[in-house]
Specification:
Elements lengths: L6 H14 L3 E7 L5 E7 L11 H22 L2 H8 L2 H5 L1 H15 L6 H4 L7 E7 L8 E8 L9 H14 L1 H15 L8
Antiparallel strand pairs: 1-2, 3-4
Helix pairs in contact: 1-7, 3-5, 7-8
Length: about 200
């Protein structure tokens, strides 16, 4: 659907834009002599923008309140957390074990009048969704892929990726217009325009 534009060219321009505009993540690597060094690479991105049905976006927004309340209630239920995470999960995953230990030190075994137990809590949640259709031509359904309470760091990259998409779509307008038009038509499952 991208006419006369090799995917490698588009990817090279996206990678160059990402490098010049801070859309990168740090990686660590060890060499043969056990020296560890850092390098940076392009963050996971989409090369081009994809249309998303407005009705699915509105639905995701409407359920966010309930998922956020669920996460808050679970985070305050020490018995449930110990039952679900304290057994096999914590034994197999050192990170989860550390988080659960910290939780118990602060909220379970710590003084009830400690500042941590008296303070308000702020949850920063990221909910990931994908569209699914059972077969071609069927309307898309919203499917939640993940509800994340820790990894929200890429949210800061969204405006930079938007700018990269704007750059690429203006730079290669003639070569990618068919892709963009087709993409918008495919996801338009109602009279509402895609977002």
């Amino acid at each position: 659907m991208i006419e006369a534009l090799p995917l490698e060219t588009l990817a090279a321009h996206a990678n160059s834009y990402a490098s010049a505009n801070g859309v990168q993540i740090e990686r660590k690597r060890s060499d043969d002599s056990s020296n560890t060094y850092s390098y940076f690479e392009c963050a996971p991105i989409s090369l081009l923008p994809n249309a998303f049905p407005k009705e699915a976006y509105v639905k995701a927004q409407s359920v966010a309140v309930y998922f956020n309340e669920l996460v808050d209630r679970v985070s305050r239920d020490a018995h449930f957390l110990e039952q679900t995470l304290g057994g096999g999960v914590a034994k197999m995953d050192p990170f989860t074990a550390q988080i659960l230990n910290l939780y118990k030190q602060v909220y379970v075994n710590g003084p009830k009048d400690s500042p941590a137990n008296q303070a308000d809590r702020l949850g920063v949640h990221r909910s990931d969704y994908m569209l699914h259709a059972d077969s071609e031509g069927e309307p898309y359904q919203l499917k939640q892929v993940e509800l994340n309470t820790i990894a929200a760091s890429f949210a800061a990259l969204s405006s930079k990726i938007f700018s990269m998409h704007r750059y690429l779509t203006s730079r290669f307008r003639n070569q990618i217009h068919l892709f963009l038009d087709t993409n918008q038509k495919i996801v338009s499952s109602s009279n509402d325009p895609p977002t």
